[in-house]
Amino acid sequence: MLPATGLEDPWNYTRALPLLRIFTPRRRNGWCPEPWTNAHLFHPFTEATAREKIQMAEDAWNSKDPERVAKAYTPDSEWRNRSEFITGRDEIITFLKRKWAKELDYKLKKDYWAHGDDRIAVRFEYEWHDEQGNWFRSYGNENWEFDANGLMRKRYASINDVPIREKDRWI
Structure pTM? Predict the structure, then answer.
């Protein structure tokens, strides 16, 4: 028999509400339809919530699932990634599919740099190899800006690639 949760009796809201709050993050303007995203962390950010947002972004990017990653961005999100300018979730998904088809065995590490009320600055590095087996470590910085629902509306990334030997990988 399952432990009592308060959900057996639909009229027992007092026992059910704490569970709903745990499993269903709220947006400021209603229930979050995608509880697996990090949209429940909204500004103003503290250092702790900025670090949590960064970790959730790292986990999503390391999944290499473009649809999962794109859900953390506004539908009209603006990106600059290296020399590419990208607008909207559809372009984000297309970009990420192309990226991860080229950057094989991709593994990313993001670190907190700074934050403001609705912005977070991140430094990162990731390792990957091309089809010929040449390994690279890419270093970069990102500036993020969020909307009132905790979704990223702007992402500006500057990235440099350094060739490495496979034995020199550390991520």
Answer: 0.77
